[in-house]
Design a protein that fits this description.
Strand 1 and strand 2 form a beta hairpin. With 133 residues, the protein is of the alpha+beta class.
């Protein structure tokens, strides 16, 4: 099962009560009831989503810096600095897993003149909903 576009792991569900009625019970009715019960329990459980974080070092021509920064921001990247280097700029960022297919975008935005290196930094848990203290 998935929720918020992410697979749900580490969950155990135990059915403690239920009944069958000749007129109102069907396979679809039980599937819908189970889905509604899961959603309700999941919202009350204060679940987290684990997302992979990567360190990115992207080297691009100076004229592509704005486009690359915008693209990294659209992929939920957080910029950590830039260093100019002889007509090229090194962009340092921390990104989520949306950058795993970054090569095609980089080639398109830099005319094939950009280069990047990604380093897996680990996973971080993010709450699905705002939690009340």
């Amino acid at each position: 099962m998935s929720f918020a576009g992410a697979p749900v792991q580490g969950v155990k569900v135990t059915l403690v009560d239920g009944s069958y009625h000749n007129v109102d019970s069907s396979e679809m009715a039980f599937k819908i009831a189970g889905s509604m019960a899961f959603r309700s329990a999941y919202e009350k459980a204060e679940a987290d989503v684990a997302r992979a974080d990567h360190g990115a070092r992207v080297t691009v021509p100076d004229e592509s810096v704005g486009a690359i920064n915008g693209d990294l921001n659209s992929r939920r990247g957080r910029l950590h600095g830039m260093e100019p280097r002889d007509g090229m700029t090194l962009i340092k960022a921390r990104c989520r897993s949306e950058v795993l297919t970054y090569n095609q975008a980089l080639v398109s935005l830099t005319g094939g003149r950009g280069d990047y290196h990604m380093q897996f930094l680990g996973t971080k848990k993010y709450p699905l909903t705002s939690r009340k203290s």
